[in-house]
């Protein structure tokens, strides 16, 4: 068994650390390890840490930033994918949309949600 808390999605007890995140091997769900911090930290500090959205390099993202895609992204229902290096301008951050925390418009693909783990701030 793992020393980390069980997966909040499927309750699997074999969770493991994946960088600054925790991951579940059964359902592939990833969540912040900050939620596993003990009771000695204040809930206000935890909420502040959770409200910050960072890119793959650890840069803090803000509304209106320009980012580039760092890996090919398949788009459901489209024969082509979003290629590495595609620039996305004027992003909007959303916090209550599951794993996808960036609302944007990608040229040639339209409006969509992206994960902050697949973009890098320019």
TrEMBL record:
Family matches, as Pfam families: YjdM (PF03831), Zn_Ribbon_YjdM (PF08274)
Outline the extent of the Protein YjdM N-terminal domain.
4-32
Location of the Protein YjdM C-terminal domain: 53-121
Q: Which InterPro entries match?
A: YjdM (IPR004624), YjdM_C (IPR013988), YjdM_N (IPR013987)
The Swiss-Prot or TrEMBL record describes its family as follows: Belongs to the YjdM family.
PANTHER family (UniProt xref): PROTEIN YJDM (PTHR30305:SF3), PROTEIN YJDM-RELATED (PTHR30305)
In Swiss-Prot or TrEMBL terms, this protein is called Unannotated protein
């Amino acid at each position: 068994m793992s020393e980390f808390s069980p997966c909040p999605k499927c309750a699997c007890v074999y969770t493991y650390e994946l960088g600054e995140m925790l991951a579940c091997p059964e359902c592939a769900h990833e969540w912040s390890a900050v939620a596993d911090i003990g009771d000695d930290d204040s809930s206000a500090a935890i909420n502040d840490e959770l409200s910050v959205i960072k890119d793959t390099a650890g840069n803090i993202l803000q509304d209106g930033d320009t980012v580039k895609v760092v890996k090919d992204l398949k788009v459901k229902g489209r024969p082509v994918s979003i290629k590495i290096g595609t620039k996305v301008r004027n992003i909007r951050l959303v916090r209550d949309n599951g794993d996808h925390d960036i609302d944007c418009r990608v040229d040639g693909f339209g409006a969509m949600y992206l994960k902050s783990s697949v973009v890098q701030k320019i």
